[in-house]
Amino acid sequence: xxxxxxxxxxxxxxxxxxxxxxxxxxxxxxxxxxxxxxxxxxxxxxxxxxxxxxxxxxxxxxxxxxxxxxxxxxxxxxxxxxxxxxxxxxxxxxxxxxxxxxxxxxxxxxxxxxxxxxxxxxxxxxxxxxxxxxxxxxxxxxxxxxxxxxxxxxxxxxxxxxxxxxxxxxxxxxxxxxxxxxxxxxxxxxxxxxxxxxxxxxxxxxxxxxxxxxxxxxxxxxxxxxxxxxxxxxxxxxxxxxxxxxxxxxxxxxxxxxxxxxxxxxxxxxxxxxxxxxxxxxxxxxxxxxxxxxxxxxxxxxxxxxxxxxxxxxxxxxxxxxxxxxxxxxxxxxxxx
Length: 337
Fold this sequence. Notes:
Layout: H1 12-19, E1 24-29, H2 44-48, E2 53-60, H3 66-81, E3 86-88, H4 93-100, E4 104-111, H5 121-128, E5 131-135, H6 157-169, E6 172-174, H7 180-189, E7 194-195, H8 213-221, E8 226-228, H9 232-235, H10 242-256, E9 261-263, E10 267-268, H11 271-280, H12 303-312, H13 317-335
Parallel strand pairs: 1-2, 1-10, 2-4, 3-4, 4-5, 5-6, 6-7, 8-9
Helix pairs in contact: 5-6, 10-12
């Protein structure tokens, strides 16, 4: 597909629709290093692709919990030093400010409850630092609940306390990477909409990381949104083609409607760091499940082509505005404090 940041040309109608729509990628992955200055400037790729808002990962369960504080401090400092191009999203109103000032709005997420160090008060701290959603677990079991690649025993008592505190402070609960039993427990227990921040349908690609139709329907019933990711092994056989991610999007829309679908590409900017994490953490990324070096990913630059492909399938402009960002915005309006 050419160089990683090569722009894909689309019809004028598609470009106009995106220009007039809120475009929100709900999950991207910069290096989890507090000294990175090489990749952070690549955030401009989102804006160049037509994205208005992005949520960046600051931690996941396979790294020491303390690293989250170092990473979020570094990210916030860098964004503040480049405030002419980027805006830290602190409240829902900031989303409109980012768009009107032609800046990329940025907030954060956490992949798994290990970052709490089993301490409920960490939730409010992370929220104040810009974290707007958090996973229950990341592939493996933790103190909150079960992972999708582990012997899932369901949501724990501490997990229920975490959900209560997340609801209190305004943080969105997410079941991507969680096991099926834990997922259904969360859907039943949560008082707020629950999201799958970056998960794909098991009905197309049978992988433990993907989610079954019953879980997708439960998410929609909660008022939540399924964010489709662009990771090659979860789309197909290490497949990063636009037509493949569009097939996953359309599958979920046909199942629960366009009000419960969004984009969360899960694009990892540092491919070498990703390869190293996979190699160094075989318990979290078992080779027998397809994890390995050279994982292909749908790029932010493909979002216009994804939009054009869905329009070609007969999606209305209204439905596309929902999918591109308004569904994520609805969750923010309903949950954020």
